[in-house]
Amino acid sequence: MRPLSYVRAESVEDAIAFVSADPHSAFLAGGTTEVDLVRLGVERPDLLVDINRLPLDLVEELPGGGLRIGALARMSDVAHEPIVRERYPGISQALLLGASEQLRNMASIGGNLCQRTRCAYFRDDLSPCNKREPGSGCSALEGLNRGHAILGTSESCIATHPSDLAVPLVAFDAVVHTIGPGGARSLAIDDFYLLPGETPEVEHPLEHGELIAAIELPPLALARDSLYLKFRDRQSYEFALVSVLAAVEVRDGAIADVRLGLGGVGTKPWRARRAEAELLGAPATAASFAAAAAAELEPAQLREHNAFKRPLAERAIVRGLTAALRGGGRMNGALP
Ligand code: SF4
Predict the structure, then answer these.
(1) Residues of the chain with pLDDT under 50
(2) Which of 9, 82, 84, 166 has its CA 20 to 30 A from that of 121?
C-alpha cells in the first residue's frame, strides 16, 4: 500500500500553492473518477488537495446573454438550472445522459472535463499503454477496440474522450478560465483538448498547479433549440458509442448557422467542422444532412472492431440535425 497525504484547501490561493509546491500532487474535487484511478494505481499522487470548499460553484448570467459556470458546480445542479435548460438545453441533456444520479450529484463540472479515458488497457497496469506509460505501446491498436476512436487518432493512441458535457461545450465555443501559479488565463475549449499525436499522455495545456475556475458560454441564439442524442449499449450509466450535439438555424430556406459536436468517435470532444462547412448555405434537407455527415466521417480511421461507428455516426448526425430542425431541446419529452 502506498502512503497518500490529504489536505483541504480553504482558498484558491492555498490550493494552487499546495499543488504547485509538490510535483506529485493533484487537485481533488468530486473524485468520482480520480479516486478509482488512484485505487487502481493508474494515478499515483503523493498528495491530494481537496478543493471542494472553494467558492467556485456558481452559475451566473453574463451581460449580453452568456453564462459562467463555476468549475465546482455539480453536474446535477447545472443540468437542472432553469437558465441552462432554457438557453442551452443540449448541455442539460448531455449532463443528464452521463453517469448515474449518484455520480452526477458528486461530480464537478471541472472534473467532468478532465476525466480520463475509459480505455480498458489504460486502467490495467499489466497492459502496454502509451497514455499511462509513455513509450510502452498501445494495446488497443490490435486489441479490443470496439469503443475506441475513429477521428483524431494516431499510431500512439486511439482512446476516445469520454465526456458528454464537453461535446456541447465544444460546439458552443465555450471558454475555459483557469487560475494557476502564473495567474489567470482563458482557453478556447477546442484548444483545451489536445490530440494524442506522439504524446497521448499530455491531454491538456494546463501547467501543474493550474486550476479550472469556470466555463464561460457565449450568447448563442440557436443553442436554445439544441439537442443532444446519445447512442450506447444500454440506456443508462453507459458511455457513448456515438453521441451528437446539433443546433441549426434556417433563414429563407437555407442553413444560416449550424453547430455540430460528436462524442464517442474522437480522441477529443469532436467539433464537426467539415460538416458545418458543408451545411452553411445549403438547403435544410435530408440530402444535405447526409452529405455533410459523410464529409465529416470521410477521414475516419477504422479498426477491426469499431468500423460500425462510421455509419452509426453518419446516421446520428442526420437524426440530430433533423430533430434540432424540428425544435430540438424545446420539444416536449426531449429532456431525459
Ligand atoms: Fe493506452 Fe490510448 Fe492505447 Fe488505450 S488507446 S491502450 S489509452 S495508448
Answers:
(1) 331-336
(2) 166
